[in-house]
C-alpha cells in the first residue's frame, strides 16, 4: 500500500511532521507575500526575480546536501523537462501572480487549495486514471466550498471574478504539469527534477524580465525586500527542500496530506497582514474545502500512513 521509505527514529518523526507543517505554512503565505510585493513590482518582475534568484541557491543547497550526483541526468530528457518547466514555472506562476492582482489573497489561497482535485481530473483525462467515489464526493464538496468563498453567499456577479478565474486557470496548468511530470519523476529523484525545472524555468523567465519596467533593487522598499526574500528563500528554497526531505521519510501520499495547513495559514495571514475580512462564507468555504480534501484522501490518512511507516520501521 505504501512505498518503502527510509527508517526514521521516533524523535525524528516529529521533526519531519513539523517540517511539512512549516512547508505548507510558507506556501499558504505566498499569496500574502505576492500582494505585498505587488505594491511596487509588476507580475513579470515578481516571478522572474523570485526564480532567477532561487535557482542558484537551490543548486548550491542540493550539492551541499546530496553531492553533484544528485544533478546527473540523461541529456535526452532535458527537452521534455524544459517543456514541463515552462508549464510549471513561467506559465503557472505568471497566472498565479496575475490572479492576485485582481482578487484577494484569501480567495486565491482557498481556490489553489483545490489543486488535488484538479490533479485528479487531469489524471483521468491525460493518463486515464480512475476517479473513485471518494474522490468524486471530495471534489464536489471542495468546489461547493470555493463557490461560497467566491460569491460570498450572493447571487450577484463577484467583484473578484477575473482574478478568481485566472487562479482556476493557474490550477489547471499546475495539474497538467504535475500529471505530465509523473513519468520523469519516476525515473529521477524529485530533487533532481526540481533542480532542472528551476534552471529551465529561470532561463525561460529572462525574456519576461527584460520586457518589464525593471525597477532597480536599490529602489525597493523594506516591505518589497521582505516579500521577495520570503518568496525566494522560504517559499522557493526552504519549503521545497523540507518537502523533499519529508517525502524521503514518509510516503509522498502522506506528506501531501499536510496541504490542509495551506488554507488555514493563508486565510489567517491574509487577515493579519493585509487586513482582509473573514466572513461566515469564508469560514464555511474553508471548512468544506478541507473536508473535501479529507474525503478524497480518507483511505490514506496521515495517522494511518504514519502508523504504516512506524510498523515498517519496526519490522526491519
How would you portray this structure in words?
- With 316 residues, the protein is mainly α.
- The protein has one domain.
- The chain is built from 14 helices and no strands.
- Helix 2 packs across helix 3.
- The longest helix has 28 residues.
- It is globular, with a radius of gyration of 19 Å.
- Its main location: membrane.
- It is found in: Cell membrane.
- It comes from Methanobacterium bryantii.
- Keywords: Cell membrane, Membrane, Transmembrane, Transmembrane helix.
- It is a multi-pass membrane protein.
Topology overview:
Layout: H1 10-37, H2 43-66, H3 78-100, H4 105-112, H5 115-126, H6 133-151, H7 161-180, H8 182-187, H9 190-210, H10 222-249, H11 252-255, H12 261-274, H13 280-297, H14 302-315
Helix pairs in contact: 1-4, 1-10, 1-12, 2-3, 2-9, 2-10, 3-7, 3-9, 4-7, 4-12, 5-7, 6-13
